[in-house]
């Protein structure tokens, strides 16, 4: 079953959780299962709240390694630990920068990892998120081609 795993780490990123569960882009792209790690957020979607994909949501686990291993695509906040874990698992990674944070070091990290051809990144604006999901689905092997750079 084609799966997307979304992680916000130990933080709160309700906007990402709301955007990813409200968009039908995942279904359009053939994803059938969405697993959400919502951290400290106030949004914890119920399993039946997302009609277009099978939804599972949790706040925290001792390890998310198995969730990443099972995923065909990882969508993550731009926390260093989450990014490194997803990249270490060898999964296509879309990083969504929380642009509402002050002193946004997440943008710097995402931009550098993108320039080094490790991931795609965007903000939570729906158009940007949908575009990036589409792009990752169209060229999922772009990470394996070091000479490729995708400009967003």
From TrEMBL:
GO MF term (any one): N-acetylglucosaminyldiphosphodolichol N-acetylglucosaminyltransferase activity
Segments forming domain Glycosyl transferase family 28 C-terminal: 3-116
A GO cellular-component term linked to this record: endoplasmic reticulum
UniProt EC number: 2.4.1.141
Location in the cell: Endoplasmic reticulum
Domain of life: Eukaryota
Keywords: Endoplasmic reticulum, Glycosyltransferase, Membrane, Transferase, Transmembrane, Transmembrane helix
Primary location class: endoplasmic reticulum
Annotated family: Belongs to the glycosyltransferase 28 family.
GO-annotated biological processes: dolichol-linked oligosaccharide biosynthetic process
UniProt-recorded name of the protein: UDP-N-acetylglucosamine transferase subunit ALG13
């Amino acid at each position: 079953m084609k799966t997307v795993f979304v992680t916000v780490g130990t933080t709160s990123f309700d906007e990402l959780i709301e955007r990813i569960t409200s968009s039908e882009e995942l279904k359009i792209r053939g994803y059938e299962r969405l697993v959400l790690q919502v951290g400290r957020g106030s949004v914890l979607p119920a399993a039946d709240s997302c009609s277009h994909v099978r939804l599972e949501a949790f706040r925290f686990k001792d390890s998310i390694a198995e969730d990443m291993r099972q995923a065909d695509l990882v969508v993550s906040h731009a926390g260093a630990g989450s990014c490194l874990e997803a990249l270490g698992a060898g999964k296509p990674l879309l990083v969504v920068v929380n642009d509402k944070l002050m002193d946004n070091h997440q943008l710097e990290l995402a931009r550098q990892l993108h320039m080094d051809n490790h991931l795609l990144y965007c903000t939570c604006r729906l158009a940007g998120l949908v575009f990036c999901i589409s792009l990752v689905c169209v060229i999922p092997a772009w990470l394996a081609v070091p000479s490729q750079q995708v400009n967003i």
